[in-house]
Amino acid sequence: MAAKESGAFYTPDPVAATLVRWAVRNSNDRLLDPSCGDGRFISRHPESTGVERNEEAARAARQRAPSAVVHQGDFFEWAEQSTERFDCAAGNPPFIRYQTFAGDVRRRALRLCDEFGATFSGLTASWAPFLVVTASLLRPGGRMAFVVPASIGHAPHAAPLIDYLVANFDAVRIVPIREKLFPHLSEDCWLLFAEGFGGSSRDIHFAPMERFREGDIPPRVAELVPVDEWRGLWNRRLRPYLLKDSQRATYQAVAKRPDTLRLGIAASVGIGYVSGANEFFHLRPSEAKHWRIPAEFLHPTVRNGRVLPPRALTARTINDWHRSDEPMLLLCIPKNADVPRTVSHYLDSPQGQKARQTYKCRNRNPWYCVPDVRVPEFFLTYMSGIAPSLVRNEAAATCTNALHAVHLHNGRDGGALLDAWDSTYVQLSCEIEGHALGGGMLKLEPGEAARVVLPSPEATSCLDETAIEGAVSTLRSWRHYGAG
Asked: Is 468 helix (H, G, I), strand (E, B) or coil?
């Protein structure tokens, strides 16, 4: 668990050797590893400096790389004070998510990045600021080679990093590797190469590879992705370039048709309610009967996408859940309602005493009123295996934040939306606009869902179904759906 929280997963030796070999051009080059771990990068070149936060790992690095200089402490603090400059840098920055990349370390990192011209959002993970600050320590013409998470291909917090790189390096190369570099991790990793610090580039060299091969990296042949095209046409995403040119062209031809919509035009997409204490607020019918909760304070709800039937949730399914005594009734008390005595007894029960201490409950008034309980026209799964499911809500149920709630804009045809969603083209759009989340899963955030393209029947009838299926299959293979 400690390794996972700190992002400390050490790089396989062949990968470390390849990156250092590319970055170091002569024996006098000074190499920096901003998060050197146990020293497997800096041990490959005598003129090396490493920084490592973990004391035990720093000690191991000194033993592995006795000729290197190893600083134990926070990299961003060290970088802010250092006057040293380096010819090259290589390493594997910690992939710490924003929830644990916090406090003074985070504030210092983001402030430094802002000073260097890279402004990150509050949701950035640690690895992207690591690379910006590392680049700032390079001499003119300097180079760097790093292992990066595959989220560089889609994450909004990666876009400021790529903007910074193309504005400050003569050449930026990104090498996606489909076969996992770290087989024991759910996270996929790509490789990043940048050279010519102090220059700029109008293109990104993009060279997908099936598997890592030492002698072939970075590949000599790469697709040149125009930066303007990456920013505009593909919404700052590199993932579409895993497809063939013809497949991307077909996708855009449909997306640009005047009779084509994006989901965000037809409907609003948002998360369901957050109860703050699911075990307390979701009752089984037998529990509601035991506590004598009046029916007007109970609302049928969908707790997760796994229980949804295909296409439509009907009263029949709700009745089946009721007969099976599933926890499918949301305790839904209007804010200004008079609370009956039986409900008060439940609120004051040991379960209620525990629930009111949770973060969400203790920060709302009254604590027992769950906000944002709405009845959408459709439910949309946002964590999916084969593809996101769109399910019509014919049972007037609500849903938790484990699902997206889809509310049609005035006058929109729900039947046409459902028919369009069943097309292979929409499956491709979900793959392009969504992103892989490990374990073969596809995640569709609300903003990503809003960008899903809904083709007209006329557009669908003109498509080469085999070509679209091939594109879908390619992107699913890159997120490892069905692997293992």
From this structure: helix
Whole-angstrom distance, CA of residue 331 vs CA of residue 293:
9
Name residues whose C-beta falls within 8 Å of residue 454's C-beta, 6 or more positions apart in sequence.
260, 261, 262, 263, 266, 417, 420, 421, 426
- The pLDDT mean for the chain works out to 93
Least confident of 7-11, 58-62, 386-390, 421-425: 7-11
What H or E segment, with its residue span, contains residue 71?
A: strand 69-72
Q: Does residue 147 sit in helix, strand or coil?
A: strand
For β-strands 404-408 and 442-443, DSSP reports them as unpaired
Sign of CA dihedral 80, 83, 87, 90: negative
Closest CA to 154 of 190, 122, 104: 190
Q: What DSSP state is assigned to residue 52?
A: E
Least confident segment among 8-12, 312-316, 410-414, 458-462? 8-12
pLDDT, average across residues 190-206:
98
- Judge if the upstream peptide bond of residue 218 is cis by omega within 30 degrees of 0: yes
Residue 328 contacts by C-beta under 8 Å, 6 or more apart in sequence?
282, 284, 285, 300, 301, 302, 303, 318, 321, 322
In the chain the domains, ranked by start, together with CATH numbers, are 2-239 (3.40.50.150), 269-478 (no CATH)
Instruction: Give CA separation, 230 vs 163, 166, 167, 227, in Å.
Output: 10, 12, 14, 5
* Cβ contact 439:433 at 8 Å: no
List, in sequence order, every residue forming a beta bridge with 144; answer none if it has no partner: 89, 194
A 10 A CB-CB count for 180 gives: 17
pLDDT value of residue 98: 41
Q: How confident is the model at residue 102 (pLDDT cuts 50, 70, 90)?
A: low
pTM recorded for the entire structure: 0.89
- Which is nearest to 391 in space by CA: 409, 411, 417? 417
Give 259-263's long-range contacts (Cβ < 8 A, gap of 24+): 259/456, 259/458, 259/459, 260/453, 260/454, 260/455, 260/456, 260/459, 261/453, 261/454, 262/450, 262/451, 262/452, 262/453, 262/454, 263/406, 263/449, 263/450, 263/451, 263/452, 263/454
Q: What is the DSSP string of 199-217?
A: ---SEEEE--BSS--GGG-
pLDDT of res. 483: 63
358-380 average pLDDT score: 96
CA atoms within 13 A on the CB side of 66: 1
Higher pLDDT, 184 or 111: 111
Whether the per-residue pLDDT at 99 is higher than 70: the answer is no
Closest CA to 187 of 217, 213, 218, 148: 148
Residue type, 40: R
Sign of the CA dihedral 393, 395, 398, 399? negative
